[in-house]
Specification:
3-stranded antiparallel β-sheet, 16 helices, about 450 residues, about 15% strand, about 40% helix, 5-stranded mixed β-sheet, binds pyridoxal-5'-phosphate, alpha/beta
């Protein structure tokens, strides 16, 4: 068993000032609701959901300080005071020189891909992310996975399953030439692998290698503070370093970053592109005008940028991160104690049920993870999401389904939203579905959208 070096008292470093009342549903209501949603949890109405673990994206509870920051919104078209606060915060906390706000992470990915990728380029990355890969492909690039093999094995206990395999990267460099590789995209933590972290040593080794070959490193820093927590807990020499200092060190080995502030940074909307190179910044700040807005607001209101600046500060607090990931580990340990197959080690932003081992009687064409997510909703009103064959989509060249090794159901924990009692309800419900797992028959897809199909696909029970 894995040893997470965390004390059991992970209690929250805050108290509750306002609550949101939830609708409680019956089994019959839930069966009706999920059928109407085509057995896709993305198509459920949120009012029919009791505990919403669809995503940790934009679902965080903001602090009283962030809410009061919203009142300080400077809604000028150009040069808003909140932009300068955000810029100062990004420089201070992450160390990047230039920042361009965007409406969310994919806005930054679009600008980055359009300015840095030429047709025929190769973009290595430590496992794909849906929107990231799509923007790379739309810009004419081709994504190549260079994550270590351990990441594709849900049972492997490697402490840093997000690590880049430098040998795989070297194979690409030898095959295509470094001039075909404008940058490598490094995600911290790796969402699709189950919130698995990258080690600082791996970042250092990667920096050394890419420097030699003139390849840039672009960080997908969506969950960089959560990654820093794992470095602090697991990597030799970092136990006494603050989350804040570890975050800054990670960023120091990179040339720029895309950020979905809807995750780590504790806001409901927002993101940015950060760069160190002046020319790259000039080009990106020109293009952002086309897609997002002027480079001092990038599709956001002044108040959104203010809340983001404050949220970034709060996200790198040691007390915050200990409670945040402490809660995730609490849920994961309950499930593990019951013998539920989950991705291990327990990752940063959620628990990933291993649908292949949960439903061994269903092959991937019956969408086991999609079916499991639907059953969990029916059981208790807990909403999760599929991360398997549906999310992986099709190869744009051959039109064939990708069959990812990992077939997962993601129970994503929003930040500062649910209590320990909610975690107990979730665990009990997963256990109940597990006990009755042999009755689950799988699904067939009856509607398939062209892009990012997992959002809008519809299914019927087999
Ligand atoms: C959410 C996410 C993105 C995209 O960000 P959006 O704000 O949803 O557009 C990119 N990369 C990772 C790892 C993410 O989790």
């Amino acid at each position: 068993m894995e040893k997470q070096k965390i004390k059991h008292s992970w209690a929250e470093p805050y108290k509750i000032k306002m609550v949101e009342l939830l609708k409680m549903t019956t089994l019959a209501q839930r069966k009706k609701a999920i059928a109407a949603a085509g057995y896709n949890t993305f198509l459920l109405k949120s009012e029919d959901v009791y505990i919403d673990l669809l995503t940790d994206s934009g679902t965080s509870a903001m602090s009283d300080r962030q809410w009061s920051g919203m009142m300080l919104g400077d809604e000028a078209y150009a040069g808003s005071a909140n932009f300068y606060h955000l810029e100062e915060t990004v420089r201070d906390v992450y160390g990047y020189k230039y920042v361009i706000p965007t409406h969310q992470g994919r806005g930054a990915e679009n600008i980055l891909s359009k300015t840095m990728i030429k047709k025929g380029d190769i973009i290595p990355g430590n496992m794909y992310f849906t929107t990231t890969r799509l923007h790379q492909e739309l810009a004419g690039g081709q994504f190549h996975d260079v994550i270590i093999d351990e990441a594709h094995d849900a049972e492997n206990q490697h402490p840093f399953k997000g690590n880049v395999d430098l040998n795989k990267l070297d194979v690409l460099v030898k095959k295509y030439g470094a001039d075909k590789i404008p940058y490598i995209c490094v995600a911290v933590t790796v969402n699709m692998a189950g919130g698995q972290p990258v080690a600082m040593q791996n970042m250092k080794d990667l920096r050394k290698y890419t420097k030699k070959h003139g390849i840039k490193i672009i960080l997908d820093m969506t969950r960089v503070a959560e990654n820093a927590f794992f470095i602090q807990q697991k990597e030799e020499g970092y136990a006494k370093h603050s989350i804040r200092s570890i975050v800054k060190e990670i960023c120091s080995y990179t040339d720029g970053a895309t950020m979905s502030a809807k995750k780590d940074a504790l806001v409901n909307i927002g993101g940015f592109l950060a760069l160190n190179d002046k020319d790259a910044y000039e080009e990106a700040s020109n293009l952002v005008v086309v897609y997002e807005g002027l480079h001092t607001y990038g599709g956001l209101a002044g108040r959104d940028m203010e809340a983001m600046a404050i949220g970034i500060e709060e996200s790198v607090s040691d007390a915050h991160m200990k409670a945040r990931i402490g809660q995730v580990i609490y849920l994961g340990e309950q499930l593990r104690n019951f013998g539920i197959p989950i991705t291990e080690p327990i990752g940063g932003h959620g628990i990933f049920l291993d649908a292949k081992r949960f439903l061994p009687h269903l092959d991937q064409d019956k969408f086991p993870a999609q079916a499991l997510a639907a059953e969990l909703y029916i059981d208790s009103g807990v909403r999760s999401m599929e991360r398997g064959v549906v999310s992986a989509g099709r190869n744009p060249k051959t039109g064939k389904n990708y069959y990812p090794k990992l077939e997962l159901v993601r129970l994503t924990i929003p930040r500062r939203v649910y209590t320990q009692a909610h975690m107990d309800v979730i665990a009990e419900s997963v256990e109940n579905v597990f006990v009755h797992r042999n009755k689950i028959k799988g699904l067939k897809m009856i509607h398939e959208p062209k892009y990012l199909r997992f959002f809008q696909a519809r299914f019927a029970k087999l």
